[in-house]
Amino acid sequence: MNVRQIEAFQAVMASGSVTRAGERLSISQPAVSQLIAQFERSCGFRLFNRQGSKITPTREAEALYNEVQRMFIGVGQIARVATALRDQNWGSVSVGAFPAIARRVLPEIVWSFCEAHPDMRFRLESMRSRSLIDAVAAQHVDFGLSILPGDRPEVVSTHLHRLRGVCILPAGHPLAERHTIHAHDLADEDFVSLGPQDHSRFMIDRVFDELKVARRSRIEAGQSETAFSFVAAKAGVAVVDPISAFNNEDARIAVRRFEPAVEFDIWLIRPKAARSFNLVDSFVAFTLERLDVFATTLSAT
Fold first, then answer.
1. SS3 content of the chain, % helix, strand, coil (to 5)
2. Are the beta carbons of 236 and 190 closer than 8 angstroms?
C-alpha cells in the first residue's frame, strides 16, 4: 500500500469514473486500474463492483473513503482501517427484531460479538414484525429477525426455527401440577389474551375456537411481558411464545408444555438489493449459530 494507490482510490471515489480519475491524476486509465487493483490486494477485499465500464463502490470502499476524507491521515492509519474492515473489526451494524427476542436473547448475542470486535458500532431496534419488514425493505436496518415472513418484494425471507408455545399459570394453580396443559384443561379458566396487534393472538384463539373451548377472557395485554405480570398476580393463565417464557423467569409463574401445538416461527429478513458488507455477513452468521444453540435448548426443556 502506498500514497499513489491511495490517491488513485480517492480520485475514483470522488469522480465516480476510472477515466476521470486518470484525468485528475494526469495518468492513463490502465494505470489507474492497475493502482486500484494493487490497492485492493493490499486491503484484502474488493473496493469496486465492475459491470462493463461502470464501477460502483462497495460498502467497505465507502467506509474507507469516509475515513480518508474525514481525517486526511497518512498511509499507516488507512492501512489500519483496511485491516479492520478485512477482519470485520470496524464498522456499524443495525438490526431490527421482534420484542421478545430483542429483550434478552439478541443483546447477549450482540455483546458476545462486540467483545471480539471492539471497534464496531451496533444499533438494535425492537419493533413488531410488520414494522420490521418495512424497515428492512427501506434499508433502515441491515437485517431483521421476525415472527412473520416478509411480504414485500424488496426483502428476502429465510425460515430459521419453529418453536412451540407454552402455557403459563400462577405457581399455586391446580393445573400447575401437570407436565402438559391441554386446551380443554383451560375451559372456563380466567385467560389473559394478547392484544389484537400481536400476530400470535390469532393463532392461539384459533386453537380454542376449533376445539370449541370457552375461556373467560377478562384481560387483554398488549405485550407478552405484561401477560406475565398478570399471571404472576394470579389474574389468570395464558399461552405465550417460549422466548418470552425464557425472558421472564419468575418463581410465581409455572411454565408448562401446551397441547395442541401453537407454533412460533423465526424468520431472517434481509434486503434484496443491499450490497454485501463483510461485517454484516459475519454478524448474521454468528447470530444464526447462536440461535441454533438457543432453539435447541428451548426444545429440550
1. 50, 25, 25
2. yes
Instruction: Show pLDDT as tens, one digit a residue, over the chain (301 residues).
Output: 777 888 888 888 888 889 988 888 899 999 999 999 999 998 888 999 888 778 899 988 888 888 777 655 555 556 556 655 565 555 788 999 998 899 889 999 999 988 888 777 889 999 888 889 999 999 889 999 998 899 899 999 999 999 999 999 999 999 999 999 999 999 999 999 988 878 788 899 999 999 999 999 889 998 888 999 999 999 999 999 999 888 888 899 999 999 999 999 999 999 987 666 677 888 899 999 999 988 888 776 6
56 vs 268: CA distance, rounded Å: 27
User: Residue 226: phi, psi to the nearest 5?
Assistant: -70, -35
CA–CA dist 98, 133 (Å, integer): 10
Residues 49, 27: Cα–Cα separation, whole Å: 22
User: What sign does the dihedral 113-247-162-92 (CA atoms) show?
Assistant: negative
DSSP SS3 for 250: coil
Q: How far is CA 273 from CA 35, 44, 110, 267, in A?
A: 29, 24, 24, 18
CA distance 11 to 138: 30
> 128: which 3 cell numbers?
413488531
Q: Enter the C-alpha cell of residue 19.
A: 477515466
Q: What are phi and psi of 251, to 5 degrees?
A: -65, -20
SS3 124: strand
